[in-house]
């Protein structure tokens, strides 16, 4: 047999093996309904027995991680509660909070530590908060203690940003970029002023 004819036969056989439907017979042993009900009842009873243990294992503190690119504010620190300035509004985080992700706007992160400790307040410019079952991660672009902020310096910076916004003329991409950057400064410094006003 020539190599060409042999190759043709092999090709047809291979094609047939790839396209021929393969039928596999599976025999399923159907469990009686009574056995199925008994199995479900055992599962329910096991879950009910485990519930008190799960409740006892719930956390009574929030394990807080608070990070910035240049500094670590808190690492695996147990606290009673945290409040963050989410884009949708202030969000309080207590132990066993539902897992969630929240974008932060300029505002104040408040940390209530152990009983008897003074509440700590940090101004953040932006960032994200990630609430996990076992911890809460705050990732901020900038964070500074509220008491360390110079109110007069904030007023000067706000006035400068407002003047930059007012000075923008034209619709060129460069002008629009300058206006956007200056407006971000206005938003941040206004939020900073508001935070300082409420802390008096």
User: Which geometry do the CA atoms define?
Assistant: elongated
Extended strand count: 10
Helix content: 40-55%
| CATH superfamily (homologous) name of the domain at 62-147 | F0F1 ATP synthase delta/epsilon subunit, N-terminal
Strand content: 25-35%
**Regarding quaternary structure, how should these chains be classified?**
single chain
Q: What is the structural class?
A: alpha+beta
The CATH architecture classification of the domain at 62-147 is: Sandwich
What's the rounded overall pLDDT mean?
A: 79
Strand order in the largest sheet? 2-1-9-8-5
- Uncertain segments are 1-32, 50-57
Gyration radius (Cα, Å) is 31 Å
CATH fold-type name of the domain at 62-147: ATP Synthase, domain 1
The DSSP helix count reads 4
Q: Which sheet architecture does the biggest sheet show?
A: 5 strands, mixed
GO molecular function, one term: proton-transporting ATP synthase activity, rotational mechanism
Domain ATP synthase F1 complex delta/epsilon subunit N-terminal: 69-143
Protein name: ATP synthase F1 complex delta/epsilon subunit N-terminal domain-containing protein
Subcellular location: Mitochondrion inner membrane
């Amino acid at each position: 047999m020539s190599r060409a004819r042999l190759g043709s036969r092999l090709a047809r056989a291979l094609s047939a093996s790839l396209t021929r439907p393969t039928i596999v017979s599976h025999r399923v042993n159907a469990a009686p309904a009574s056995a199925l009900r008994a199995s479900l009842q055992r599962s329910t009873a096991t879950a009910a027995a485990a519930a008190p243990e799960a409740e006892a294992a719930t956390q009574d503190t929030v394990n807080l991680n608070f990070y910035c690119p240049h500094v670590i504010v808190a690492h695996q620190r147990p606290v009673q509660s945290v409040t963050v300035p989410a884009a949708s509004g202030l969000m309080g985080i207590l132990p066993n909070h539902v897992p969630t992700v929240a974008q932060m706007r300029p505002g104040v992160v408040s940390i209530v530590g152990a009983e008897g400790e003074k509440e700590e307040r940090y101004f953040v410019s932006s960032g994200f908060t990630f609430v996990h079952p076992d911890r809460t991660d705050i990732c901020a672009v900038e964070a500074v203690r509220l008491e360390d902020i110079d109110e007069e310096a904030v007023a000067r910076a706000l006035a400068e940003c407002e003047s930059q916004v007012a000075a923008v003329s034209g619709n060129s991409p460069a002008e629009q970029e300058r206006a956007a950057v200056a407006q971000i400064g206005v938003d941040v410094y206004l939020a900073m002023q508001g935070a300082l006003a409420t802390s008096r």
